[in-house]
Amino acid sequence: MATSAASVQMKVVKGAGGTPDASLDCSTIFASFTPPIEFGQYDDETYRAKWRNINNAQGNTGGWQAEHVPPCSNFHVSGRDGATIPGCSNYSTDKALTWMVHDGQTHGEEHRILTEHMADFAKKNKPEGLPEKHATLSEWMDEYEKGAKRALKDSKDRTPDPTRDHDSLAQAAAECIRAKMDEFFNEEVGVGPDKKPRVDQNTLLRNGQAKGAAPPAPPPASTGPSAATQGSGLTGL
Q1: Residue 20, CB half-sphere, CA atoms under 13 Å: how many?
Q2: Strand-pair category, 188-189 with 196-197
Q3: pLDDT in tens, 87-145
Q4: What's the CA gap between 233 and 90, in Å, rounded?
Q5: How far is C-alpha 6 from the chain's CA centre?
Q6: What is the 3-state secondary structure (H, E, C) of 91-156?
Q7: pLDDT digits (tens, 9 = 90+) for 147-182
Q8: Which residues pair with 160 in a beta bridge?
Q9: What is the pTM (predicted TM-score) of this model?
Q10: Are 233 and 225 in contact, with CB atoms under 8 Å apart?
């Protein structure tokens, strides 16, 4: 995989057992776990086959699964695919960047920890009997970063570098996962005047795991003076 701006970001990670603190780039942080943190396109069969082989070598029954960040249901009107919500027309569940996490949905495993953390956030945004709130992509990524740290800290199947403080390494890795995904969402796609970020960080997302409604479409961008003020001579309005 080509080197990206996110992979060379530097994070200070505390040492353990007398090892001094160190400033590490994200690629090194990802490689500080066994197996390492790795990203790939969801429908890339080579990527998925590699991790099936890792799973077989470990003798695991749960398997490694490609994790969407944040949940892919947040970008769709209903379910995990199909029509997308406003501002997400350039998002595709199959073409999305993912990272490999362990297990299906067994309690205490990486995938379950992340699913529960995101589901709790979705439910907070859609409290029973109260108006639903739609958080922005940036707010969802803030929350995902917290869940990623917890998943890596509590992981039973991914071993951290013993020369690094586990909590500090998990925090740095979560920040790096966030940076990698921000890079994916911020990448400009399209041609000419239609070129724009894949998903803008201020886009409101659906509370997919709480079966929430699609957020309202943003107001159209202004292209000039409104009819109410055009030619009126008024300023400062």
Answers
A1: 2
A2: antiparallel
A3: 999 999 999 999 999 876 677 789 999 999 999 999 999 999 999 999 999 999 999 99
A4: 41
A5: 13
A6: CCCCCCEEEEEECCCCCCCHHHHHHHHHHHHHHHHCCCCCCCCCCEHHHHHHHHHHHHHHHHHHCC
A7: 999 999 999 889 999 999 999 999 999 999 999 999
A8: 33
A9: 0.87
A10: no
